[in-house]
Known about the structure:
Largest sheet: 8 strands, mixed
CATH architecture of the largest domain: 3-Layer(aba) Sandwich
Oligomer: single chain
Bound molecules: aspartic acid
Number of helices: 9
Distance between the termini: 46 Å
Amino acid sequence: MSIAVVSTGGTIASTDDSGGDATPDLSGADLVAATPGLDDVALRVEEFSTMPSPHFTVDRMLDLAVLVRDLDADDGVEGVVVTQGTDVLEETAYFLDLCYDGETPVVVTGAMRNPSLASPDGPANLLAAVRTALDADARGRGVLVAFAGRVLPAREATKVHSQMVDTFRCPEFGPLGVVEEGSVTWRRRAEHPDPTFDPDPDRLTNDVAAVYVTADAPASHLSAHADATVVCLAATGAGHLTGELVDALEDLRAADVPVIVTTRCPEGRLARSTYGFRGSERTLRRLGCLYADLNLQKTRIRAIVAHAADRLDDAFAAP
Ligand code: ASP
């Protein structure tokens, strides 16, 4: 039995030998060779890509999900570790989670400091991810993120700092566990398991807009997306829009564009029956918007996956 390490690029695989311009150029085999503490673990490496994570497309995310499923079906694989750049890691991990209901642990990790810098964090993160994937209690928990000693559910993990090494957190509810001395101490289970989707590659599209509502935002911020396949909206507070955005929302809904609303607050969920002013949850309900309880970028990933599986209504709640 072995742990499959799937290498995709990112800072963990970047060097800046050219003098400060780090780019991904290391293979998965290089990452494994540079990580102390793996001698007792049978590893197999899958070289998936060598790209910065902002270059990841949703098509590549689906390819990765298919690879993860294939590895789960392989009796020789005990766990899967995916290494990726941190910028969109939370989106890739959640995409994988939405497409995966296997028992084999799947753990995503990366690094904030590349191997050319003092104190690179990649080796420690890779080691912790492998140890997590080997942990019997990691089985059946869905896709996990292991980073800077924390183990987080893909659904909740989010990058909260642009530069610090302990950048991945779960706002509001905290990590599932922590990795210390190579073993995981679990403290909670991820409640609220998501349905699993089987996206049709031909329906997969990146044409799902993500709009962040800001004070006095004009109608154009929303009407610019009148042709989008789906619009995801991070509303203020418990689910509120500016007056002008309501005009644009009415047009979008009249044109049957699905609109999925979440809150722009890092913690908490949308209200259903507290406010009644124009642009409040009453308006969202009247216009047949759907609700999400995820951050905006994860809401968009869920919309992309659910749309590709032709299950958008089933994937989000009505207000
Ligand atoms: N800064 C990024 C990282 O941490 C670059 C990327 O996402 O590829 O890996």
